[in-house]
Amino acid sequence: MSHADLINHLDRWATKRVVVAGDFMLDRYAYGNADRLAPDAPVPVLAVQRTESMPGGAANVCLDLAALQCDVACLGLIGDDEPGETLSMALQNAGIDTSGLVASGERPTTVKHNIVGLAQHRHPQKMFRLDTEDKAPITAEQTTALFEQAELLLEGADVLCLEDYNKGVLTEPLCQGLIAIAQKKDIPVFVDPAAINDYRKYRGATCITPNRTEAQLATGVEDPHAMAEKLKAELELTHVVLTLDKSGALLLDDQDKTHTVPTVARSVYDVTGAGDMVLAMLAAARANDVPWVDSVALANVAAGLEVEKSGVVPIPIDEVLLALLTLHHDKLGKVRPPEALYRELEAYREQGKSIVFTNGCFDILHAGHVAYLRAAAAHGDLLVVGLNSDESIKRLKGEDRPVNHEADRVMVLSELQSIDYIVVFGEDTPINLIEAIKPDVLAKGADYTRETVVGYEVVEAHGGRVELIDLVEGRSTTNIIRKISPAED
């Protein structure tokens, strides 16, 4: 497993059909200032400034999967009420199939009312939550209605996900029936379990994804390896994935081999939704035939991005790719062969990043170069430097150049914070690079005119521009060579 492997998996990503069954909820938020106490009781007062509603629980898994470019269908129970209608409409607006959401007049849609306060312009903090719900097990009639929908939705599906919040929908009869239908259709079943002490209702699934606390509650043991082994044996699973917060994740595979998948240290802002994201990415990756260890690694990356955000926010696949490219960049340094560079830049461009390109020999790096590159970088988000190869410089400047060989020039340039990427080219001009990269900004020194900058037509044809950068007077490689060369008689 490497960052390059994970990037390659995302490059080959395809849309897959995923059915999500479980507890569909509506999360409602009231945001406001909470900088005073009530005069009649020792409690804070929230001056509400705005409210919003968004899908939660299994519905959030659906949004996560949709953000990962999956074709998603819902299977669950909602109330025949305003929150149920709001939830269904929000899912439909995200392109999700809600035909499997059975509306019932016998129980309300589960709603979590979150009260979020802000004081002195600091980060918002959840003050408390009010829940509207009925956790009684669903009836036999409701179970039958869900089975009927399941038979239709699972036809042609690639994966079935069970998202259990212990709200009474995923009863043992329903879970076992859904697993049986999926097995009959050769569809893998992934389970994000509830925080309960009896997991027997998940028996026969493909994989279960509890966190450390949930697994301890269900198994009564503390060692992660022992937890995974017990769950796999007792539930007749093929795989177990335990999420272990800062310790990453543990995968027990179908050969009873244990894999520890590390995570990247990130600033944790809000852990809400991390488990949902793990289930979504793991299911989507396996549907795309990504190897198990790599699938868990992708789930780790996606969950890490999730916890950096306030509230529950779906993580688009492009954001996962961008995070991997950043990790890959940090590990590999700044030099890329052309094809690898084009792929990485395209991912950044899809995130709205602007690309600046410049080129040169940069033979003896001096203050003028540093100032020039810093100024060029200020015109966009990423600076790509096209560096003339040794042979290219010899053709342009003579056999006694370059003074510093290509590898040395690359090493020195790589230490400049202003540069994001370096690509070496062997032609006399960088026109081929410019045509492939199509930078938003083409930077050259002010000793050029717009019309004499190689590639200006290409850049302007796709909406880019040329920037002529002022040079530091008296600073040039030629002047340095003259200064240090022996004087002629």
UniProtKB/TrEMBL annotation:
One of its GO terms (biological process) is ADP-L-glycero-beta-D-manno-heptose biosynthetic process. Residues 357-464 form the Cytidyltransferase-like domain. Residues 16-313 form the Carbohydrate kinase PfkB domain. GO terms for cellular component: cytosol. The active site is at 276. It is an enzyme of class 2 (transferase). Homodimer. Catalyzes the ADP transfer from ATP to D-glycero-beta-D-manno-heptose 1-phosphate, yielding ADP-D-glycero-beta-D-manno-heptose. This is Bifunctional protein HldE. It comes from Algisphaera agarilytica. The lineage of its organism: Bacteria, Pseudomonadati, Planctomycetota, Phycisphaerae, Phycisphaerales.
